[in-house]
Amino acid sequence: MSVAVKLLVMFLVFASAAIAIFLAVAYSTHLPVSEQHDVQQHGYAIRGRWFLALVLFLIASFAASIPFYPYMSATAALAPARKVPVIAEQYAFIMPSRLPVDKPIIFEVTSRDVNHDFGIYNPQGHLIAQVQAMPDYTNYLRVIFHAPGQYTARCLEYCGVGHAIMAKTFTVGGK
Ligand SMILES: [Cu+2]
Q1: Average pLDDT over residues 110-120
Q2: Does residue 85 share a domain with residue 154?
Q3: Does 89 share its domain with 165?
Q4: Rounded to the nearest whole angstrom, what is the distance from the C-alpha of residue 118 to the centroid of ligand 1?
Q5: Distance between CA atoms of 90 and 155, rounded to whole angstroms?
Q6: Strand locations in 19-164, DSSP E?
Q7: For FRET with 64, which of 17, 73, 114, 138 sits at 20 to 30 Å CA-CA?
Q8: CA 172 to ligand 1 centroid distance, Å
Q9: What is the pTM of this model?
Q10: If you measure from the C-alpha of residue 82 to the centroid of ligand 1, how many angstroms do you get, rounded to a whole number?
Q11: Do 167 and 85 sit in the same domain of this protein?
């Protein structure tokens, strides 16, 4: 089932529930009128039970949703990643020329001189990831290369006269 269909089904379910509640409320106004003191005790009891049910529902929802919190899976995926230092300088990237396919990689990107940008292009020439390369600071870029081939890192921030030729090709997979 596609995401759009799931969203449509969810919308229809919740919209139907909302409409049903409105109809029930509208219908309930046809009942004979009661005096406040006749119904007060009973009403408070109903309110108390609903409040308790709502609190329990919210606690249960909160507990049930914790495993789906994205940060845990992101942290788990980071754990076995291979760290690859990248040093940018006028006008080159110092980094390995071969990297593994389908393995999480964390590029540790910094600069030896001025601000650069580390942009990774796949073999089709599409930009797939990028991060700033800054002096005296390390930025972390997590990448998984899903296809082997010849990739190219290019500088994406003007850094001097040689900026346009600042590139490094590297191979993913093979050996
Ligand atoms: Cu540059």
Answers
A1: 96
A2: yes
A3: yes
A4: 9
A5: 10
A6: 82-89, 92-94, 98-99, 104-111, 116-121, 127-133, 139-144, 149-155
A7: 17
A8: 23
A9: 0.57
A10: 26
A11: yes
Widest CA span of the chain, in angstroms? 87
Distance 138 CA to ligand 1 centre (A): 17
CA of 173 relative to ligand 1 center, distance in Å: 27
Instruction: Give the pLDDT score at 79.
Output: 62
Give the integer Cα–Cα distance in Å for 135 and 114: 6
Range in 36-45, 90-99, 111-120, 162-171 the model is least confident about:
36-45
Å from CA of 116 to ligand 1 middle: 5
Q: Is residue 167 part of a domain?
A: yes
CA distance 82 to 61: 36
117 C-alpha to ligand 1 centroid (Å): 7
Residue 157 belongs to a domain with what CATH number?
2.60.40.420
Distance 135 CA to ligand 1 centre (A): 13
* pLDDT tens digits, one per residue of 80-104: 788 999 999 999 999 999 999 988 8
Q: How far is the CA of 166 from the centre of ligand 1 (A)?
A: 6
